[in-house]
């Protein structure tokens, strides 16, 4: 400290004599050293004031008062700056923890798109923030049944992600791919209703596909209706199913419906992030998706998903407003 | 030794506490910068009382240890108390409750000691020695 | 983006006019406003959504939580003057089966 004080006085007196740029530069470097030695702003001012007193003898009283005032406010200023810095450090710590949590979530929720003989499956799921509130779960027993769940937790970020882990484990405990969709929803509903607070809920579309009979059975809990394209009729149908969101009432019964997938038919399952066009009042997103799907139906399911995502993103000026998930199941040509 | 007690009831009492503290610091022999630090610390303690505990008091006194003089300031309130003192000092406490300014106070003085009981109140004692 | 709510009391009927956008950012504001309502048995709360021009699922969460609270207190909740878009949202989610919902009249057809 004494050393630094001496240096400061020296540099200051040099500058007062010559006003050299180099003295200013040296002065700035000295401040760096002072910060390392934990010299506070008010100390620097005090040193400055003492230096002036040494150079010029007694300073005018008004100037002394002015310095005292400066010292006083700088004590507070220094404190607030330190508080601010510690906030930044904490924020950084939280950011790192969030990154780790997001990684863990990704690993937990990772689910490979199954490869089956007679269907072509594609999927895209893009989170708005670090953690995804959408989740796609596949069950495939490699012989008879394919199960697919597309879910959206209300809310975003960490709370949604925590709730999502629960949904995943709920789905994991339902071991078999041949479970009835309505049964799956009833079980999950009880699990979620018991575990989360009143403003938290989950929408979920569950479908089971019989790989032998090509019967597609679905049930929905408050989820955005999926689209079914009937290739023979060149027509889209909404897979309407009025089921209550999961987690609202304890005992809810769900209904299920079925259809037979034929050659070149396809199903588009999505979350509301896909159809929720905030900035385009009156714009019918579902029509747009149908249009896109039709013009890209020659692509494989994964390419269709990617293209639909890109095109919709373009329409929203490349800005997502919600987690975005699309799953496409195409019935392949018969062998 | 003379001991000064200031009841903190209105915002003006914060100023009074600061003024008494500065005079005392000056009398003990602290330089201008340390006077400013001690006064700021008293101000933070008094603000804590005023904003979060409504009423309480600040006690300012001279202290001595192994021949070295110092100033001791104690703030006593009957507010809601602080749950986790350690967390408060690390600044991991809500900035809108008792204890908000305590990490700052800690940086200004040589020692800080907090005794607190939820629902009963908080006693904070800080000491700064003449170096 | 903002949301605000104005209340008008009329005996056992409390009408709240909600205006603005209900999303992740504004939903907590609305939740707080609804939380302070003094619920009593026999009270009917009618929330007018004709001036809600956007709502996402977080907004639904606010209404669901409020609905549950209302039911617990033996009061009643009614959502009125919903735009086509909002009506669809309540239908898709199955909430229209649960809660009393009234679509907007002709004056609100454009919203």
UniProtKB/TrEMBL annotation, chain A:
GO MF terms, alphabetically ordered: phosphatase activity
Coiled-coil residues: none
PPM-type phosphatase domain mapped to chain residues: 116-331
Keywords in alphabetical order: Hydrolase
Matches recorded under InterPro entries: Bact_Sigma-Reg, KaiA/RbsU_helical_domain_sf, PPM-type-like_dom_sf, PPM-type_phosphatase-like_dom, PSer_Pase_RsbU_N
PANTHER family tied to this protein: PHOSPHOSERINE PHOSPHATASE RSBU, STAGE II SPORULATION PROTEIN E-RELATED
Name of the protein: Phosphoserine phosphatase
Organism annotation: Ureibacillus yapensis
Organism ancestry: Bacteria, Bacillati, Bacillota, Bacilli, Bacillales
TrEMBL record, chain B:
InterPro entries associated with the record: HATPase_C_sf (IPR036890), HATPase_dom (IPR003594)
Record has Coiled coil as a keyword: no
Key words of the record: ATP-binding, Nucleotide-binding
Single GO MF descriptor: ATP binding
Lineage top rank: taxon: Bacteria
The keyword Nucleotide-binding is annotated on this UniProt entry: yes
Pfam families cross-referenced by the UniProt entry: HATPase_c_2
Domain Histidine kinase/HSP90-like ATPase positions: 16-128
Protein name from the UniProt record: ATP-binding protein
Organism: Ureibacillus yapensis
Organism lineage string: Bacteria, Bacillati, Bacillota, Bacilli, Bacillales
TrEMBL record, chain C:
Family matches, as Gene3D superfamilies: STAS domain
One Pfam family in the UniProt entry: STAS
InterPro entries: Anti-sigma_ant, STAS_dom, STAS_dom_sf
Protein name (record): Anti-sigma factor antagonist
PROSITE patterns (UniProt xref): STAS
Family according to the record: Belongs to the anti-sigma-factor antagonist family.
Biological role stated in the UniProt entry: Positive regulator of sigma-B activity. Non-phosphorylated RsbV binds to RsbW, preventing its association with sigma-B. When phosphorylated, releases RsbW, which is then free to complex with and inactivate sigma-B.
Record-level Gene Ontology MF annotations: anti-sigma factor antagonist activity
Lineage: Bacteria, Bacillati, Bacillota, Bacilli, Bacillales
STAS domain sequence ranges: 3-111
Species: Ureibacillus yapensis
Keywords carried by this UniProt record: Phosphoprotein
């Amino acid at each position: 400290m004494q050393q630094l004080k001496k240096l400061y006085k020296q540099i200051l007196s040099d500058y007062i004599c010559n006003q050299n740029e180099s003295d200013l530069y040296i002065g700035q470097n000295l401040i760096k050293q002072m910060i390392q030695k934990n010299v506070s702003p008010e100390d620097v001012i005090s040193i400055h004031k003492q230096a002036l007193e040494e150079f010029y003898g007694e300073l005018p009283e008004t100037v002394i008062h002015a310095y005292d005032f400066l010292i006083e406010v700088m004590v507070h200023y220094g404190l607030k700056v330190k508080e601010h810095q510690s906030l930044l450090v904490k924020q950084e710590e939280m950011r790192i923890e969030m990154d780790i949590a997001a990684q863990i979530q990704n690993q937990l929720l990772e689910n490979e798109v199954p490869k089956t003989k007679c269907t072509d499956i594609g999927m895209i799921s893009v989170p708005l923030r670090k953690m995804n509130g959408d989740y796609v779960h596949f069950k495939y027993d490699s012989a008879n049944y394919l199960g697919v769940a597309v879910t959206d937790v209300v809310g975003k970020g960490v709370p949604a992600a925590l709730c999502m882990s629960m949904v995943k484990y709920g789905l994991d405990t339902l071991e078999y791919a041949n479970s009835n969709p309505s049964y799956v929803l009833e079980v999950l509903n009880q699990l979620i209703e018991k575990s989360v607070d009143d403003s938290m809920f989950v929408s979920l579309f569950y479908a089971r596909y019989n790989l032998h009979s090509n019967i597609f059975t679905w049930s929905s809990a408050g989820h955005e209706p999926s689209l079914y394209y009937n290739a023979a009729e060149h027509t889209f149908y909404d897979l309407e199913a009025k089921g209550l969101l999961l987690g609202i009432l304890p005992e809810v019964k769900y209904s299920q419906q079925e259809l037979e997938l034929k050659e070149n038919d396809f199903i588009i399952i999505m979350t509301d992030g896909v159809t929720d066009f905030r900035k385009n009042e009156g714009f019918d997103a579902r029509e747009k998706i149908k249009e896109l799907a039709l013009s890209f139906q020659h692509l494989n399911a994964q390419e269709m998903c990617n293209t639909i995502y890109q095109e919709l993103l373009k329409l929203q000026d490349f800005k997502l407003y919600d987690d975005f998930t699309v799953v496409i199941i195409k019935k392949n040509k018969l062998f | 030794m003379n001991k000064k007690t200031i009841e903190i009831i209105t915002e003006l009492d914060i100023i009074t506490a600061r003024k008494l503290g500065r005079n005392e610091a000056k009398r003990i022999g602290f330089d201008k910068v340390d006077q400013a630090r001690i006064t700021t610390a008293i101000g933070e303690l008094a603000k804590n009382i005023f904003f979060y505990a409504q009423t309480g008091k600040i006690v300012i006194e001279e202290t001595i240890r192994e021949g070295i003089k110092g100033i001791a300031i104690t703030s006593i309130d009957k507010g809601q108390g602080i749950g986790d003192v350690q967390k408060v000092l690390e600044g991991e406490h809500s900035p809108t409750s008792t204890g908000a300014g305590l990490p700052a106070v800690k940086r200004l003085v040589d020692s800080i000691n907090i005794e607190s009981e939820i629902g009963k109140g908080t006693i904070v004692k800080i000491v700064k020695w003449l170096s | 983006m903002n949301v605000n709510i104005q209340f008008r009391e009329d005996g056992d009927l409390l009408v709240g006019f909600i205006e603005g956008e209900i999303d992740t950012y504004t939903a907590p504001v609305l939740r707080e406003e609804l939380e302070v309502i003094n619920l009593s048995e026999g009270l009917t709360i009618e929330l007018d959504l004709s001036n809600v021009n956007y709502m996402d699922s977080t907004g639904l969460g606010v209404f669901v939580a409020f609905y549950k609270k209302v039911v617990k207190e033996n009061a009643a909740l009614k959502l009125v003057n919903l735009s086509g878009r909002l009506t669809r949202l309540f239908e898709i989610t199955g909430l229209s089966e649960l809660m009393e919902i009234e679509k907007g009249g002709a004056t609100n057809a454009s919203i």
